[in-house]
Amino acid sequence: MTDDTTPMTDGGTDDEARTDGGPPATVPPDDETPTWSERKEHSQGLAQLTYQYFERSRREDEDLRTESTYVERDVLGFPTWPHETIRNLAITSFFIGIMLLVASIMPGHFGDPANPGSTPAIILPDWYLYWSFGLLKLDPINPDLAVLGGNIIMSNELMGLVAHGAIFGVITLVPFLNKGNARRPVEEPGWAALGVTGVILAITLAALAIQNFFPVQLELLFSLTFMLPVAGGVVTYAVLKTMREGYMYDLNRRYFMLRPPK
Amino acid sequence: MSLKKQDDMDHNAWLKSQDLTAIETAFLTTLIWLDKRLRIVDYLELLETMYYRANLQMPKSHTEQYDLDNKFWYWYPLYSLGSLSIIAYLLAAVSGALLGFYYAPSTAGAVAQGDPTAAYDSMVMIMQDVQFGFMLRSIHRWSAQFMVAAVFLHMLRVYFTGAYKEPREVNWILGVVLIALTLLFGFSGYVLPWKQLSFWAAQIGVELALATPIVGEWAAQLLFGGFTLGQATLVRMYILHVFVLPFVVTALIAVHVGIVWVQGIAEPH
């Protein structure tokens, strides 16, 4: 395996003086990383499958890229430095400035120390939990069963919890229920109406939570809590349905002008 | 594999053949000297590749490609709500860390019911004695309010522009989790001053936990440290507020933003 032309570690080529056993039997290629197919051949089992998949997905990417009419370009469109950085700094300082301003002109109220012995007349969380607190005041619609002699199945607190679960569950499921490419409210008046219903419901539930502050009868407030969201949803649906035709006409015209049908 | 000394890349000769200023010569000499020993060129190449991948080949955005800017400019401020919640979160983190130097999560010190506790007293101390303390608490409180408001509005923006649709379902769910955690953040912070409203808000929390079937009592003990409120409740809320939630929420925000980075921003079309 030794020859006179193969140099040794000290740079010499004298075969007699060789003490290092010569070059290794298998010589890895100098500066080539193995290709995916080579790695695939040298591996087995799961690793081989992985490499096979990589090869396939790379080929797929390449095919898609060849077929695509997507416009790519060397951007230099809106440079990170300095334009984007300055814009971000401006927005960030603006927001922080607003927060500091509000904090300095409206410091928080600080009440009496906790007293487990005396329940205050008004118990309230922070404003962002009003809707949640309102859900705990749904006693009048807690269903009672005639077979149980008019007893309720679950406690009022438990029903509040179940309502929370239902709301979070519905919100979580939204992307699995509403599919397709539509992005604008006008394209899907129903979903936009559902969203508006939800927003108004959150507001009316908050109003229900701070019911003591409203000079209306509790029954009326309770009815409004559920009527207003529905009314809001219906109005939204009607408005968007009306806007839709003209809006979609413009949109389609613009789209087909840019990408005429083949 | 040749170990023979190779001189075909004679950098010094190349250097001499150039017409360089003193600064350029010094720079290149240093670079070559370092590179011969440390092969920094490899790392520079890596950096360069990463830079080009990150910055230079960017597809046109949807609105650019179809020239929709004239129609949609009024959506764009709504796209900064996510940033606003992160900025508010950072501001709350900084002011909260400073508040943590002075706050004591303890109910000690109350002789009779309704007396100020150590926690309450430390809040009073922050607001009355600590230099800039009143402002500090105000900043912490308001940045928290801003964060919650921004998070809610951010969710509405995502909903009404249909940005949650395929392939972004996972990020929507992550966002729902983040909203729940933000509310928990707010709730646990609300309890800490141990004033009347804090105490009775926590009381409602315990009652809710106890009303839950099966896991209720376990949850009450885990979150509130028992069925009646006291020292254990305050410490648990404190640890939740300053240790558990910051790590969890920060990590989830990082994942949330990372997914947005990878998937791109969904624009209306």
TrEMBL record, chain A:
User: Where are the residues of the annotated region Disordered?
Assistant: 1-44
Q: Got a GO cellular component term for this one?
A: membrane
Record-linked SUPFAM superfamilies: a domain/subunit of cytochrome bc1 complex (Ubiquinol-cytochrome c reductase)
Among Pfam families, the record links this protein to: Cytochrom_B_C
The membrane spanning regions, by residue number, are 89-110, 158-178, 190-214, 220-240
Q: List the biased-composition ranges (Low complexity).
A: 1-11
Which keywords annotate this record? Electron transport, Heme, Iron, Membrane, Metal-binding, Transmembrane, Transmembrane helix, Transport
Protein name (record):
Menaquinol--cytochrome-c reductase (Cytochrome bc complex) cytochrome b/c subunit
According to its UniProt entry, this protein's organism is Halorubrum coriense DSM 10284
